[in-house]
Amino acid sequence: MPPSALQIKVNALKRLIKEETLYQQEVAEQQQYVDQMKSNNADEYELKKQIQVLEESQRMVPEVSRKIKDHKEALSQFLETYKGEEDLSAAKELVQ
């Protein structure tokens, strides 16, 4: 049986929340790595590349946050008109 529209929306939102957490963790770890490279006077080219990786990760956090906000709004609107018999507790918890 294929997943329902509600399950798809809930799972997509859960995935985005997990993705945001992973990006935040990646930013913290990459920042530590860059700081360590700076203190060890690492190769300038390698340091520049690692800073680019850090900046890319930093740009992804607000992007994923925006997607989470959009998905929460869409799920909230979906719940207002939903007439099915599925358990809505997980969906309502995510929207809060």
UniProtKB/TrEMBL annotation:
Keywords from the named record: Chaperone, Cytoplasm, Cytoskeleton, Microtubule
One GO term describing the cellular component: microtubule
Name of this protein: Tubulin-specific chaperone A
Function: Tubulin-folding protein; involved in the early step of the tubulin folding pathway.
Gene Ontology annotations of biological process type: post-chaperonin tubulin folding pathway; tubulin complex assembly
Origin superkingdom: Eukaryota
Quaternary structure and partners: Supercomplex made of cofactors A to E. Cofactors A and D function by capturing and stabilizing tubulin in a quasi-native conformation. Cofactor E binds to the cofactor D-tubulin complex; interaction with cofactor C then causes the release of tubulin polypeptides that are committed to the native state.
Gene3D superfamilies: 1.20.58.90
Lineage: Eukaryota, Fungi, Dikarya, Ascomycota, Saccharomycotina
Localization (cell): Cytoplasm, Cytoskeleton
Main subcellular location: cytoplasm
Record-linked InterPro entries: TBCA, TBCA_sf
Similarity annotation: Belongs to the TBCA family.
GO molecular function, one term: beta-tubulin binding
